[in-house]
Design brief:
6-stranded mixed sheet; 17 strands; 18 helices; 16% strand; Rossmann fold; alpha/beta; globular
Length: 504
């Protein structure tokens, strides 16, 4: 298992020099824990900070012994250019349909080939870490846009290794992807994999269309043939751990907090928004919709409240600072225009909240509003559905309503949601008005469909599906070769292997 970051938190005791490590939580950790008993694996990744050279052996041994993890060590300079500059400032925006600007204030062109060189070097370091522990017959599963050169690097060293790669973000249209100056090289790096996984059919279709421009590549709905290798394409929507949220919901701490919130917001309809503070999450679009809603429905000004949680992210980056400032200004403007001495229509929480607090808010909310302008999946929608599994009485009879951006990957799976275009402010405002007046029977019907999907398409289910398909990829490749050629074909690499064995 190879990802940019290891799921490890750590600190060093300066007095004793000892390192202490603990396993972090997260969606990928949850998904992979579900398959660990069936498929034991080693996790390879970067720790997120530079480790002094004389401490690396000690750290490597401790992680291998206690967590079955292998660290990749990167210098601060390489990490900054590979992770911050190339992965997050170039790949992340393009994959979320944000084009590269011609110029960055105070500097020359945005694209810097030193960042690309660092990206390639970091991928080579990851490949070296894999090579150190790889044994014949192992599978390698690579994750996300940080490591798109890794499949071909591994393929050149291990021709018969089964390699999978999964993208946790959208993949843009071929026309959008063409803006990336090194797009062809990245696609060739990915085409060393046996299985390429995406959250939705749209993302897979865009990837296949982009590969059609790679010299020597032949595409089909099943995958991409490049040289003498075939890469199968798979669609696997990720989920959450439903039992985890139901356990929190049923805990005494959460139930007590639900009662407190019910009293606090008595007589009010509650809309919940939970987002990382990122421009792709559409928080300003959500606030504009709330402002428009209050203008269209003035009678609602005193009995509807939006609780928006904005989890800080990349606070040292200028674009994110501007976003936070804009959100603060908009919240102040809406509360100043529509609020009173005793009521503020927007409650803005600019920090993370405890799990029990979050689940209590989910359960209380009459509407969950997700307004991402692009999102790989958006699991907030799944979390809200699970926390509506029990009615929040006496605040409301029956479940609440999910309003979901059509640009979130989860919109293709959650058929019980009301879908909106975040760029259409008036339509979103009217969707809020519609959702708040939805009859009990229709709310229950929508929730039943949503709950059934979220409960069955879990994070563990996702992990099992991808790993099973990776096992079967060679069968898919053989089927492809025989279905697309009239004559039996012999791949070039098979001739090369036979030649080397005869010469030897």
């Amino acid at each position: 298992m190879v990802s940019n970051r290891l799921p490890i938190s750590f600190q060093r005791n300066e007095a004793t020099g000892e390192w202490s490590f603990s396993m972090s939580s997260g969606g990928l950790v949850t998904a992979l824990n579900g398959i660990r008993d069936q498929v034991p694996f080693i996790w390879i990744g970067w720790l997120g900070e530079e480790i002094p050279h004389d401490e690396q052996s000690k750290v490597r041994e401790k992680l291998a012994r206690e967590f079955n993890c292998v660290p990749v060590f990167l210098s601060k300079e390489i990490a900054a250019r590979y992770y911050n500059d190339f992965s997050n400032d170039i790949l992340w925006p393009i994959f979320h349909y944000v084009p590269l600007p011609l110029f960055r204030p105070g500097s020359e062109k945005k694209f810097d080939f030193r960042q690309w060189d660092a990206y390639k070097l970091a991928n080579k370091r990851f490949a070296q870490a894999v090579n150190q522990v790889y044994r014949e017959g192992d599978f390698v599963w690579v994750h996300d846009y940080h490591l798109m050169m890794l499949p071909s690097l591994l393929r050149s060293r291990h021709p018969h290794c089964k390699i999978g790669w999964f993208l946790h973000t959208p993949f843009p249209t071929a026309e959008m992807y063409r803006m990336l100056p090194v797009g062809r090289e990245i696609l060739e790096g990915l085409l060393g994999a046996d299985l390429l996984g995406f959250h939705t059919y749209d993302y897979a279709r865009h990837f296949i269309a982009a590969c059609a421009r790679v010299p020597g590549a032949s595409t089909s709905p099943k995958g991409v043939e490049h040289g003498d290798h075939f890469s199968a394409i798979g669609v696997f929507p990720i989920g959450i751990d439903p039992d985890h949220f139901e356990d929190i919901l049923n805990s005494d701490v959460t139930q007590k907090r639900i009662q407190e919130l019910t009293t606090k917001f008595a007589g009010c309809k509650v809309i919940i928004g939970v987002d990382r503070m990122d421009y792709i999450k559409g928080i300003p679009h959500k606030l504009l919709a709330m402002e428009r809603f209050l203008s269209l429905y003035p009678e609602r000004c005193k009995n509807v409240v939006l609780i928006q949680i904005g989890v800080p992210s990349r606070t040292g980056v200028q674009e994110y600072q501007h976003l936070a400032a804009s959100v603060n200004e908009m919240v102040g403007r809406i509360n100043g225009r529509f609020g009173t001495l005793t009521h503020s229509p927007v409650h803005y929480i600019h920090r993370s909240v405890a799990p029990s607090e979050l689940v209590a808010l989910y359960n209380l909310a009459d509407v969950c509003l997700v307004t991402s302008i692009r999102d790989g999946m958006n699991l907030v929608s799944h979390e809200y559905v699970m926390c509506q599994s029990q009615s929040c009485e006496p605040h409301r009879e029956g479940p609440g309503v999910l309003i979901l951006s059509e640009f979130a990957g989860s919109a293709q799976s959650l058929s019980g949601a009301i879908r909106v275009n975040p760029w259409n402010t008036t339509d979103m405002a009217n969707a809020l008005g519609y959702a708040l007046e939805l009859p009990l029977m229709e709310r229950e019907y929508r929730q039943t469909n949503l709950y059934r999907y979220v409960k069955t398409h879990t994070a563990s289910f996702w992990g099992c599906q991808v790993s099973k398909c990776l096992v079967l990829t060679r069968v898919v490749a053989i089927d492809y070769w025989f279905s697309t050629t009239k004559e039996p074909c012999l791949m070039t690499r098979h001739l090369q292997v036979a030649h080397r064995s005869n010469v030897g």
